[in-house]
Specification:
The protein is mostly helical. The protein has 16 helices and 4 strands.
């Protein structure tokens, strides 16, 4: 794990031939891989700390916004501040003095990121390695001091805004108590965990005007009548699950993105840590930036726009999940169809409707399409380091469609949650594209 983090900062760096020693650090700071490395170290920490998907989206959003705002204030001819665009957010002060904007951006990202994770040392080590490299490449102490001071000022500004998003208050709210009605969500095997983030709709969104701005159609009325539409969708999950072909199986596994999968063998139990669904799309944003060879500024911009879409997507999705509180297929299949059936993927510990993958994947895909264009083909190798494989896509939207249907193949969502989740996510992505202006025209 440490080796992966170090590679993110150091492996991709290079020396500019013929450059004065005291100018070399500028080349390193101008390199977009330097910002990419900072994001990768954050992802590694999110995986290690096992943040839930909604909470992970919050970590990505605020960290990237801090880095972005430094650049927006430093390059007003290229980037527009998010002040006045994000709910209750105001622009920080502009830089003054001998500030290197790229270093200040990295420092602001680092400070906000550290405030949002547990294992601070996992961000400290690669960041300190970068700073040592910059020192060796001639970074002047006065530039470093000024840059750190400005990065700190912007980080504090973002953290003050962040502290008012109602996250801290929700930490004290009561847990969800499962109800007996058969159509309502119950904890699922193997761990029967309590429901995750039942109050997430109280978190302040960023671009949406409220958590329920794009509430989806309600789920199909619950019924166990074998002729009912609901039962037919329930049976489809079972039927697909017992007849998976190799391609469907690969798709389901590729998009699993469960941050913690528990394995039980007799009395022994161990867990596998994985990337979150939002983290997977942050990885896709990383691939797109590298493939398009965008610079440091536009790399930060792409991560910021994507992370905001993910953040609002989770708020919208969780608003519906804990309104409808719909039972998962696994619970009903085991009770009424086949008591020995198990879904291919481990059922996540929260209500079924709508599909989180469907919502956030589509929101991110619409946003990335706006940045990089339609028909942007790419090889998605995000999951390789987690023991999976690459998959090739002709566009971000195609990838989002596959992410959505993967949940039916995995046995954890009804088709209605997939289809209506895509529609919900599409509206969120379009709202971000329409209302969030980052590039100065």
């Amino acid at each position: 794990m440490k080796k992966l983090m170090i590679i993110g900062f150091v492996g991709a760096m290079f020396w500019m031939s013929g450059c004065e020693q005291n100018e070399t650090y500028k080349t390193t700071l101008d390199n977009p891989d330097t910002y990419q490395g900072m994001v990768k170290s954050l992802t590694n920490t999110v995986v290690y700390d096992i943040f839930s998907p909604p909470v992970a989206s919050r970590v990505y959003a605020y960290s990237n916004i801090a880095g972005y705002e430094v650049l927006a204030q430093s390059y007003p001819g290229r980037l527009k501040s998010l002040g006045g665009q994000l709910n209750e957010f105001t622009s920080p002060v502009a830089p003054s003095g001998n500030v290197n904007p790229k270093l200040a951006s990295l420092h602001a990202f680092y400070l906000v990121g550290k405030a949002l994770i547990f294992s601070e040392s996992m961000m400290d080590e690669p960041y300190h390695l970068l700073l040592e490299r910059l020192k060796q490449e001639g970074l002047d102490e006065s530039v470093k001091k000024s840059s750190f001071e400005y990065g700190q000022a912007v980080a504090d500004h973002v953290k003050n805004w962040m502290d008012d998003d109602f996250y801290k208050q929700t930490r004290t709210f009561p847990k969800y108590t499962p109800q007996s009605a058969e159509g309502l969500w119950k904890p699922t095997p193997p761990d029967y965990m309590e429901g995750i983030e039942p109050h997430w709709n109280k978190i302040r969104p960023m671009v949406l005007d409220s958590a329920n701005q794009f509430a989806p159609l309600p789920p199909i009325p619950f019924s166990l009548d074998e002729q009912s539409t609901f039962y037919k969708q329930l049976y489809e999950v079972y039927d697909v699950g017992v007849n998976l072909n190799d391609e469907q199986l690969n798709i389901a596994k590729f998009w699993d993105c469960n941050p913690y999968v528990s394995h039980h063998y007799g009395h022994a139990m161990f867990g596998t840590k994985k990337i979150t669904p939002g983290g997977h799309w942050i990885g896709i944003a990383s691939i797109a930036c590298r493939q398009s060879e965008v610079d440091f500024i536009n790399t930060c911009e792409a991560f910021t726009r994507t992370s905001i879409s993910l953040f609002d997507g989770f708020i919208s999705c969780w608003d519906e999940k804990w309104r409808s509180i719909l039972v998962r297929p696994e619970t009903l299949i085991n009770r009424h169809i086949d008591e020995d059936w198990k879904p291919l993927l481990q059922t996540p510990p929260f209500p079924e409707y709508t599909s989180g993958h469907s919502v956030i994947s589509r929101a991110a895909a619409v946003t990335l399409t706006d940045i990089f264009g339609d028909n942007f083909g790419f090889n998605d190798d995000t999951e390789v380091e987690y023991g999976l494989f690459e998959r090739q896509f002709s566009s971000f939207l195609e990838a989002s469609e596959e992410a959505a249907i993967s949940r039916l193949y995995g046995g954890i969502h009804y088709r209605m949650a997939v289809v209506n989740g895509v529609t919900q996510g599409n509206k969120i992505g379009e709202q971000v594209v329409k209302n969030l202006v980052t590039a100065v025209k």
